[in-house]
Structures are given as C-alpha cells and as structure tokens.
Amino acid sequence: MIPHRIGIHHSLTKDSQTVSTGAIRKWHRGLIGQSNLLLPNYNYYVNHPMKDIGYHALLELVNDYYEIIWGRMLNEQGAHIQRHNDDSLGICFIGNFDIDEVHPEQWNNGIKLVTSLCHIFMIPTERIKGHRELDPTKTCPGINFNMDGFRLQVGQGLKF
User: pLDDT of 24-68, one tens digit each?
Assistant: First the structure.
C-alpha cells in the first residue's frame, strides 16, 4: 500500500497512563469483550476479528511521557475508516476528545508524527482527515480535536 491520506482518530476511552494499545489490539482481534449484542462489553470483533490492530500508530501517555506506539506496518493496509483503508494511514490519539481536551504534549507529538509521514509519503495537508470528515456518523477524533488547527500546524512544518 502507498498511502495518499492520513486518518486521525481518538480511542473514545480515557487514557489510563499505561499501555492501552495492547488492550485496543486485543479488542480489534476479538480476544476480549462479549460476542452477544445484548451483553455489556459487546465487541463486534469477537465474531469478526481483525488480524491486528487497525491503526498504524497510536499516541498515548505511558508513565509520564506521550509515546508514539506503532501498530500496523506503514506499507500494510489499515482497518480504521471504511472505504478509505486501502490508501490511508490510521493514527489514533488515546483519549476521549468528545469530553476532554487533547494534552499539549500529545498534540505536539501528533503534529511531529503526521508531519513526518506527510513528508515521507508526500501527502498534502488537505488529505489529513478526521474520521468524522470521511464518515459523518462519527464525531471522531472528538469534538474537542481541532482538525483545521492540526492541519495548519502540520503544514507549517512541511517543506515540499
């Protein structure tokens, strides 16, 4: 896969200050949660598991630092936005930004990561999309995640 777009997401969960990526990977692979829609903690992926986590990279607080944690390889198709997985990289910020604000350190690391990916793959800033911009039934990456501001800051770091 050669990416032509970057999809920005949030996990819709509170960052627990431990490695949440492992739990997301287990969720996507259907290894945790319930298979019955009527039970609490229902997980669609129990009956339809992914081969791995759907995102290419995740940004989360581990101890006292916002880490960039790799998920899928960059040349591997992701599983994060229907009808856009075959040409996009998925980046997930751990947190619920429908409720909380993005921590400045997490935001800045996200800017650095996405700027690097745009530079490497020659992706223009107008092709950085929040999940909600490609699927209007979603709020992802959260109503408190300023996609225009994010694109603007990435663009300031690009030199092509």
Answer: 888 888 888 888 888 888 888 899 888 889 999 999 998 889 999
37-68 burial code (b ≥16 CB/10 A, e <16): eeeeeebebbeeeeeebbbbbbbbbbeeebee
| Distance of alpha carbon 124 from alpha carbon 111, whole angstroms | 14
Secondary structure class of 139 (helix, strand, coil): coil
In tens, the pLDDT along 131-146 reads 999 999 999 999 999 9
CATH topology of domain 5-16+53-157: Lysozyme-like (3.40.80)
Peptide bond into 141 cis (omega under 30): yes
Handedness of CA 110, 111, 114, 119 (dihedral sign): negative
Minimal CA–CA distance to 67: which of 108, 101, 100, 26?
108
For residues 100-109, one letter each, b for 16 or more C-beta atoms within 10 angstroms of the residue's C-beta and e for the rest, the string is eebeeebbeb
Task: Specify the higher pLDDT residue, 96 or 32.
Answer: 96
pTM (2 d.p.): 0.89
